[in-house]
Amino acid sequence: MSYVDGFVMAVPTANREKFLAHAREFDPVFIEFGATRVLECWGDDVPHGKVTDFHRAVQANDNETVVFSWVEWPDKATRDAGMKKMMDDPRMDPNANPMPFDGKRMIFGGFSPALDLKH
Which domain holds residue 98? Predict the structure, then answer.
């Protein structure tokens, strides 16, 4: 059964190209370590809710865009091994290669698919 890591972050809107350049450089590392797919989605229809929403979840400011990303893995074992390699890989050191957004406000988690519908 596949496994998915999901990420939501607030990226300064002015940093869109920096964010995409960062993703183009580092997302292939997920693939190198076993992921089957990586998607980076720039928010363009992210409503503000009355109780909670994506903006509040990552404390997005008016000059930031909510980005939703996910990484698909063939199974949790591959994900666990791949994420360990990611954390140990010097290319992923945020001091050497800083993220173009505030990583402290990024939310993330791993998910087991409960339903998978395909066309």
Answer: 3-111
